[in-house]
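Record 1 of the preview.
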Amino acid sequence: MSCAIVVHGAIGSGKTNSCLSMAEAVRKEGITSGGILSIRVFQEGRLIGYDGLELSSGEVFPLARLRELAGDSDWFVFRNLRYSFSISGFKRANQILESSAETLSQSSIVFVDEFGRLEKDKRGIYSGTVKVAEALRGGGITVFTCRTEMVEILKKMVLDKTKNIIRLKPQARDKNLKLILKLTRAYYQE
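->
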């Protein structure tokens, strides 16, 4: 059995926080969480970017910063977005996702946060997302996050790898937690 869960909503709707709650809930059940979450970074109360959080280790690394705060050659600009993006950060994020894909069917749940405009253009965490999607053929549960307008793109990525695709909104946190626990218990504790 495999299952792709797509948590979708607008910026700031709670997708990442919902995933943090899910990861903690399944960890308490003895299920390993892998993959990455994109957590907000604040400076003096101001949102200045996003860091990648490696769920298996708890390590944090830079992914995006406001353009004026990213200065060296490790950062690239994409279209007219207000952030610059870390080349080394996304390389690391993709390596984490590729490694997580290898263990997907072995009592782990993989989180991929967030599939967005960069990934639509086959940049950012695109290559890692593709590996995780492919790994669904062998079983396992993956939670993807995206804005609502990206849901169909993600569905196409996983459609021929799993028949179980569940869309969730982050605002239904309690319902989402119950569902993820039910799925992980059914799959990993049979």
